[in-house]
Amino acid sequence: MLPSLDGRGKGEGEKGFSDGKSIFKRTEDSIYNLKISHFAGHTKAFLKIEDGCDMYCSYCIIPYVRGGIKSRMPYDILEEAKRLIQNGYKEIILTGIHLGAYGRDTQGNHRLLDIIHMLSNLSGLERLRLSSIEVNEITNDLIALVADTKKVCPHFHIPLQSGDDYILERMNRKYTASQYIEVLDNIRSKIDVPSFTTDVMVGFPGEKDVHFENTINLCKKVGFSRMHIFSFSVREGTAAAKMTDQCHPKIIKQRKAMMEAAANGVAFAYKKQFLNKVVEVLVEAERDHKTNQLCGYTERYIRVLFDGSDKIKNTIVSVRIEEINPSFVVGTLQ
User: Which of 130, 184, 190, 141 is nearest to 160 (CA)?
Assistant: First the structure.
């Protein structure tokens, strides 16, 4: 299972990566020293192509401690991708603290689109997935590339954080709720049943009932297939930590529970579209711990459980969906 798809969370690489011989831990210039070839216990490989962030969201400390955008050179990315493919990985997830800003520090000499195109042409790679990308960095060219390139998964993890313009402005996010919806509608017009996952923060300073209701309504309108819901917590040194209108912990807890209920509802509705349909599943290396069934993910990042032999682990198989749950579906191997 993927870590948090949002590069600003405790997701990919925060505890170091296994290269088969040692645990690599991040240093200031680690983006230039990565030599990853193996991820213990993972069927999917994570390929970091960017570090740093220059967004300065008011709740986030990362730009202060990690610095600005640092893009990895294409030849390094290509070398690592080839090594991962040679080691049997059929899906690669491109990751970064601020993935959509890849190449911004190269004066336009390198672009995320170029990296996607380069890797999608590699023999042996079955799937290429983006980890997390800001809504205002999803261009028409990127949408067209995903739509036209079979290997690139039609799955977009697009952090929302809030669906209210007042809160978004206080968060120093660079879009409005209507702009967010407009981009997702544009994706839907070009790609068949795309999967949208997101991050939502509840209890940001100054969040009133009306602001929270706007966020819930937007989430229901979008119909996310999965939502990561976070309670606001103070990070010393950030602008949000100095705001005087902090939400009461009890209210934050209540809003998180309400948002989780809404998330389950929209996730169920999205997955229901695939009932009685056949999907392609990359089978994970480990079985589901509760049911002991095989499990894996579709290109749209739907978790699928089904019965089968260990021999098909790390292969892509066809499964007919027969049961729907908010967090996973159950099917039969075809």
Answer: 184
- The continuous run of DSSP H or E covering 144 comes out as helix 140-148
What is the per-residue burial (b if ≥16 Cβ within 10 Å, else e) of 264-279? eebbeebbeebeeeeb
Residues 230 and 222: their CA atoms lie apart, in Å, by 18
Residues 6+ apart with CB under 8 A from 249: none
Give yes or no for a contact between 193 and 233, defined as CB atoms under 8 angstroms apart: no
**Coil, strand, or helix at residue 241?**
helix
Q: Which residue in the block uniquely carries the two structure tokens 């004066």?
A: 107
In 223-279, which residue ranges form alpha helices assigned H by DSSP? 249-272
List, in order of start, the domains of the chain with CATH numbers.
Answer: 1-153 (3.30.750.210), 157-273 (3.30.750.200), 278-333 (2.40.50)
Taking a C-beta distance cutoff of 8 angstroms, is the pair 50, 94 a contact? no
The per-residue pLDDT for range 218-239, each reduced to its tens digit, is 999 999 999 999 999 999 999 9
pTM over 0.85, yes/no: yes
